[in-house]
């Protein structure tokens, strides 16, 4: 005979175990305002035990909700412009003219990069000009706060949670600190590397140093399939590497055009 009371007891116990396991695996609750950020940090830190160090989580505890980051994230309207409008807004002609001078004054650096990574100066300099106006505009937003805010924000929480774990690793390595500042989405250096890209493609050294930034950017493009000597216009083999740098079509096309002009090609 089946012991009904015993079965009910066992079933209830099993459900309790499953409920507890589900609770443990539940992700920290994202939000779209500053109101839940402090609670989210506590939930995230609890989840991150064993994956992030106590020191890096202490750095995370000191972060604040970054309103400039959210404003920038919601205001990327230039990517909806036509190619001509986008290039005019970004000052493409100025980037090309200054870029040619940058290429000449840093000839040895770009020659060594091309020999090692197969990437010519043009696209690297175009990225440099587009991202920070050759290092003049690198941002002044706290990096950890920016990445944590976007990991908490519901719009792209999964993507930036991955970036946040990378940032915590960089804290442990001394690459960034609780005081590091950069662009609004957590990018740092002359060519604006996100934390995970620093881990994957950084070649060592401070990305606020031109040499480190250029070699790391070349390594990124190589890691995205750059083929030495191949073209990088739309439809050519290396265009996919530029697509890896930025998902916006107008940005990719602008890099391709400016890079070729800097390298001496006609458009």
UniProtKB/TrEMBL annotation:
Gene3D superfamilies: Bacterial muramidase
Keywords: Signal
SUPFAM superfamilies cross-referenced by the UniProt entry: Lysozyme-like (SSF53955)
Domain Transglycosylase SLT: 37-233
The keyword S-adenosyl-L-methionine belongs to this UniProt entry's keyword annotation: no
InterPro entries in UniProt: Lysozyme-like_dom_sf, MltB-like, SLT_2
Tagged with keyword Nucleus: no
Region forming the signal peptide: 1-27
Pfam families: SLT_2
UniProt protein name: Transglycosylase SLT domain-containing protein
């Amino acid at each position: 005979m089946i012991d009904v009371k015993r079965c009910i007891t066992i079933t209830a116990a099993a459900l309790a175990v499953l409920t507890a396991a589900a609770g443990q695996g539940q992700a920290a609750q994202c939000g779209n305002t500053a109101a839940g950020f402090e609670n989210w940090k506590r939930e995230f830190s609890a989840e991150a035990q064993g994956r992030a160090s106590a020191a890096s989580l202490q750095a995370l505890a000191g972060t604040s909700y970054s309103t400039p980051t959210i404003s920038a994230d919601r205001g990327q309207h230039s990517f909806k412009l036509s190619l001509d409008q986008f290039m005019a807004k970004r000052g493409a002609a100025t980037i090309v003219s200054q870029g040619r001078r940058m290429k000449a004054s840093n000839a040895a650096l770009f020659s060594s990069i091309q020999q090692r990574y197969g990437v010519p100066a043009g696209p690297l300099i175009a990225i440099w000009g587009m991202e920070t106006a050759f290092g003049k505009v690198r941002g002044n937003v706290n990096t950890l706060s920016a990445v944590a805010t976007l990991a908490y924000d519901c719009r792209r929480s999964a993507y930036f949670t991955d970036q946040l774990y990378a940032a915590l690793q960089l804290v442990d390595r001394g690459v960034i600190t609780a005081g590091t500042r950069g662009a609004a989405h957590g990018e740092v250096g002359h060519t604006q590397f996100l934390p995970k890209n620093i881990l994957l493609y950084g070649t060592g050294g401070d990305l606020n140093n031109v040499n480190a930034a250029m070699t790391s950017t070349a390594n990124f493009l190589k890691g995205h399939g750059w083929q030495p000597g191949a073209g990088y216009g739309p439809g050519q083999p290396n265009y996919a590497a530029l697509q890896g740098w930025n998902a916006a079509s107008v940005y990719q096309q602008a890099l391709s055009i400016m890079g070729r002009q800097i390298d001496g090609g006609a458009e």
